[in-house]
Amino acid sequence: NGNAGFQQVLERLESDPVCQRLSLKSFLILPFQRITRLKLLLQNILKRTRPGSEEEVQATQASDALEKLIKDCNENVQRMKSTEELIYLSQKIEFECKIFPLISQSRRLVKCGELTALDFHNPSPKWKVTARPIYLHLFNDCLLLSRPKE
Question: DH domain: from which residue to which, for each copy (predicted)?
Fold first, then answer.
């Protein structure tokens, strides 16, 4: 989005009749969609093969290999999504000191959300309660609390 030249080239390519007006995203997703269609095809082949035949053994081996490939693809997609979340979060969060590297290969964002922090003050016989928003970011290896910039 930040590179105007890239956007112009992308728009020109996507409008080309050879691309059939498909977006870049659809071309990136297409190989994964084909893999999942292959899984369905192999399942149908397995239903129609004779039990105990050489064809059943080969189709079962192909199906197992395809299952492993799909599992690996899904894990890599999750890893990339997690890395993208960390990059986005690191752009939003400003640390007072840069001793905490937010982006790490092993770090994953598990849960995040806004909470309300309550501060209790007792300057007199009556309690005074102040509420302020804070954000909780739970990672697989640490917990980060942040507050909006004032």
Answer: 1-76
> Is the distance from CB of 116 to CB of 133 less than 8 angstroms?
yes
| 123 band by pLDDT with thresholds 50, 70 and 90 | low
Enter the pTM of the model: 0.63
Low-confidence winner among 65-69, 78-82, 118-122 (lowest mean pLDDT): 118-122
Q: Are 132 and 123 in contact (CB under 8 A)?
A: no
Q: What are phi and psi of 75, to 5 degrees?
A: -65, -40
Count of CB atoms within 10 A of residue 31's CB?
A: 9
Between CA 72 and CA 39 the distance in angstroms is 14
